[in-house]
Amino acid sequence: MRDLSGKKVFITGTASGIGRSTAISLGALGCRLFLTDINEDGLKKTSEMIANAGGEVCMAKALNVADYQVMSEFAKEIHNGYGSLDILINVAGIALFSQIEDMQHSDWEKIINVNLWGVIHGIECFVPEMIRTGKGGHIVSVSSTAGIIGLPWHAAYAATKHAVVGISEVLRYDLRKHDIDVSVICPGLVNTGIVQTVDIHASQKSKEKLQNSFIKFAITPEKVADMIIDAIHTRKFLVITSLDIKLLYFLKRYCFTLYHLIMLYMTRVLDKILRRDG
Ligand SMILES: NC(=O)c1ccc[n+]([C@@H]2O[C@H](COP(=O)([O-])OP(=O)(O)OC[C@H]3O[C@@H](n4cnc5c(N)ncnc54)[C@H](O)[C@@H]3O)[C@@H](O)[C@H]2O)c1
Question: Is 8-275 a CATH 3.40.50.300 domain?
Fold first, then answer.
């Protein structure tokens, strides 16, 4: 198990949810943190929580991960002041549930910009410097169940999250020669800000019904943070946070007919919930 004390860690999406919990846990383990989020107030609160618990936030800056220019400027500041990172954790993301006929082109662009370009920007701004320094490292990217399963109503979200799994799988092998490990996290439902901010293209009543049922089955962001830290310690590649999703993923690979029937059923149920008053 690797000692994380003193490691320089950059984390996106730290104003809330999984990103905040991961930053707090890594702060408690003695990591030197570089934090970002588009939500300035939430980011400030996370930094205060870490500092109050005795952790070290070296730099925190509010920015949009979809903006390459500002991400690369922040990366330069970090590299100039502190050298290369040890660990990069891409967490920031947004969610969208929609039938494709109810989506505007701007919906596709928005989610791809944040969930895919955001992750790419993290990788391109920090990993080449890690390679040049030659000290090894670890990249963690938070994908989703929608990154390994074709969940209904998730076409655009799934496009971004499958891409994150794809990039991670390639880097897992490409970066081995540089002693840089890669993990991709595929959470099921987690009780975070995204449960409220998820953009659902359905009536208000059916949206609320779905959001309430999310909360019933969701795990805590602290639990996901523990799994992220365990993946860094054990160099685990794929982390699926819940047993039901592990089982579904198993069926997809080894018993496709059953998986197919479950997906047909799931689609019918979600259609029924979200189209009821739509
Ligand atoms: N909560 C779940 O059920 C769930 C399930 C699977 C995957 N995920 C993934 O986990 C990750 C973290 O989400 P969460 O559940 O903690 O939700 P969250 O909303 O609590 O946290 C996401 C954070 O990302 C930030 N963010 C959004 N757009 C940004 C942008 N353009 N630039 C910078 N920061 C931005 C938000 O301000 C927020 O603080 C996301 O990538 C999400 O897709 C969440």
Answer: no
